[in-house]
Amino acid sequence: MKTFLPCLSLILMLAGCAQIPTPPPTETADWSAHQQQLDELTDWSLSGKVAIITPEERHSLNIYWQQSGDDFHITLSSFLGSTILDINKTALGTRIIDDKGKVYFGKNAQTLITQLSGIELPVDVLQQWIKGNPSGAVYQLNENNQLVSLTGQDNQDDNWSIDYNNYKTVQQTSLPHQLQLKRQDLLIKFAIRKWLLEKSAIF
User: Fold this and answer.
1) Is residue 192 within 8 Å of residue 201, measured between CB atoms?
2) Cys bridge to 142: 8, 98, 148, 196, which one at CB 3.0-4.6 A?
3) Is the distance from CB of 150 to CB of 137 less than 8 angstroms?
4) What distances in angstroms separate CA 92 from CA 70, 105, 119, one per listed residue?
């Protein structure tokens, strides 16, 4: 019995250790440096596809997004190449040209996009989130210190969650190439084909 009890205690200790969950990845110096790199990345462009899915309908579009500081130019087009929306935002406001060539102006880009197309795209916060920078959001990292998910609000106080995957290194910067945005029954999927990181005058 004297031999059995220590063995039993050891077995119970090992079983208890096996049940302790592995803690989630914590922020490290590598993540802090990477997030600072994303903060400083203010001039970039991307191209790819976006799918906008609701219980009633689904839209699949090409997207081209060019960012310069706080200004951006987004073009949404059909798979045949015809422009659906051409969105240009500067400090003076937002200008949108629709598929019929009509021009509209407004101060709030997200509101104007929704009013003209029915597409709800949180462009103001997405300028950071699409890079994998969880600015103003609650987030989780994976084992590689990359953003794997976030939960945050847009400028209309609507709640969004985003899942990230398929990171690739572009010009020494790790950037997501696939992400899914969710808000209630709305799902927006991005499949980014190409990132380009450079300073350029676009307006």
Assistant:
1) no
2) 148
3) yes
4) 11, 10, 23
Residue 136's nearest CA partner among 120, 106, 165, 160 is 160
Q: Is 132 left (phi over 0), alpha (psi -120 to 50) or beta?
A: left
Residue found under tokens 């997207």 = 63
Contact (Cβ atoms closer than 8 angstroms) between residue 110 and residue 122: yes
How distant, in Å, are the alpha carbons of 32, 83, 105, 108, 193 from that of 115?
38, 17, 12, 11, 28
Report the phi/psi class of residue 99: left, alpha or beta, with left for phi > 0 and alpha for psi in -120 to 50. Answer: alpha
Give the C-alpha distances (Å, rounded to integers) separating 80 from 7, 99, 160: 72, 13, 30
| Class (C level, CATH) for 28-197 | mainly beta
Provide, for the chain, the percentages of residues in helix, strand and coil under a 3-state DSSP scheme, each rounded to the nearest 5: 20, 45, 35
Digit-by-digit pLDDT tens for the chain (203 residues) are 444 334 434 433 444 444 444 444 445 669 999 999 999 999 999 999 999 999 999 999 999 999 999 999 999 999 888 999 999 999 999 999 999 999 999 999 999 999 998 888 999 999 999 999 999 999 999 998 999 999 999 988 999 999 999 999 999 999 999 999 999 999 999 999 999 997 544 43
